[in-house]
């Protein structure tokens, strides 16, 4: 039930599970050529079913939403408005997700945070919506789902 709530919240913010699946697939198919997108989707949903992942997503998304409404105290509001490069709390929150399936997720997260592929790039682009946290959280979910698959095949 909670997984459905977090999936609905992600969709409300412009992220579909299949967007995350695409990232996971691109990360793992070079190592597992027979990997199916259905296996990737199962892995993403398993990650999203973890309570600590849900809590991280709820927290980060709430902060993004409050920032969009200019409801955060200063200087936090200004920091999130410009997505200040030295503000690393968004990455720290996402790293909590990557560690759910071990440290292998850390390397994938670093890659995704730097390369900003797929939906992560779209979220990172400036616009009316603020996604300071969400882009990193999605990278964290994708990295954890990718690590879960890596563990499954080793």
Protein traits:
154 residues; mainly alpha; 0% strand; YutG-like
Give an overview in words.
This protein is mostly helical. The protein has one domain (2-153): YutG-like (Orthogonal Bundle). The chain has helices at residues 2-12, 17-28, 37-48, 51-68, 76-82, 89-98, 104-115, 119-124, 134-153. Helix 2 (17-28) packs across helix 9 (134-153). Pfam families: PgpA (PF04608). This is Phosphatidylglycerophosphatase A.
Could you give a quick summary of the protein structure above?
The protein is built from nine helices and no strands.
| Run of helices and strands | HHHHHHHHH
Percent of residues in β-strands:
under 5%
Q: How large is the count of helical segments?
A: 9
> Helix proportion of residues, in percent?
over 70%
Question: How would a textbook summarize the main sheet?
Answer: none
Mean pLDDT: 95
Q: Calculate the terminal CA-CA distance, rounded to whole Å.
A: 31 Å
CATH architecture assignment name: Orthogonal Bundle
Protein name: Phosphatidylglycerophosphatase A
Domain YutG/PgpA: 19-150
Organism: Effusibacillus lacus
GO biological process, one term: lipid metabolic process
């Amino acid at each position: 039930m909670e997984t459905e709530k977090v999936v609905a919240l992600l969709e409300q913010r412009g992220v579909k599970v299949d967007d995350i699946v695409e990232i996971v697939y691109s990360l793992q198919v070079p190592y597992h050529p027979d990997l199916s997108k259905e296996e990737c989707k199962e892995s993403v949903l398993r990650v999203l079913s973890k309570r600590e992942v849900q809590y991280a997503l709820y927290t980060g998304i709430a902060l993004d939403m409050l920032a969009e409404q200019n409801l955060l105290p200063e200087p936090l509001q200004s920091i999130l408005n410009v997505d200040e490069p030295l503000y690393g709390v968004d990455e720290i929150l996402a790293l909590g997700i990557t560690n759910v399936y071990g440290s292998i997720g850390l390397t994938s997260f670093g890659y995704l945070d730097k390369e900003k592929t797929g939906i992560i790039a779209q979220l990172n682009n400036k616009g009316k919506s603020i996604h300071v946290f969400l882009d990193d959280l999605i990278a964290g979910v994708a990295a954890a789902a990718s690590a879960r698959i890596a563990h499954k095949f080793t």
